[in-house]
Amino acid sequence: MEDLRPRIARTLRREREAAGLSVSELARRAGISKATVSQLENGAGNPSVETLWALGVALGVPFAVLVDQQASAPTLIRASDHSGVPSAAAAYSATLLAASPPGARRDVYLIHADPGEPRRSDPHHQGTTEHVILVSGRAAVGPADAPIELEPGDYLAYAGDVPHVFEALAPGTSAVLISELR
Which residues form the HTH cro/C1-type domain (predicted)? Predict the structure, then answer.
């Protein structure tokens, strides 16, 4: 699998230019430094999940657009080869497994998390629903004001356009997360 940095650099520059934004304006809208945007467009730095979400929101594109690997052949992602994007605020990383193809609106992620600071998410685009299937460990997931404890095999769907949380309650917690925009 291609390293994320060149993929993010290529996509970020393409989306910024398509939106007609300068590096400075994108940085302002995303609430991050101009230097960070420049570094990312040059394939340097290791962006957090929060940084990529902020850039996606500022550009009006889903997170998946910034990290998706376009492929015409079958895509195999071995568990040992995950190149996830880490969170800056929690022991949490997200690996995009499948981005939504044109005309459809769903992205599939594999989540790995450990106990510690929960991964708190701001609301995504209006009409977003998140689906979580817990694979291992235990986690409190869902609306930030009323998360639900999940065990392996449990499925939960909740509104992703309101503040929500993913908190690992056991080491080695993993889940499949599907983000769907209606």
Answer: 12-66
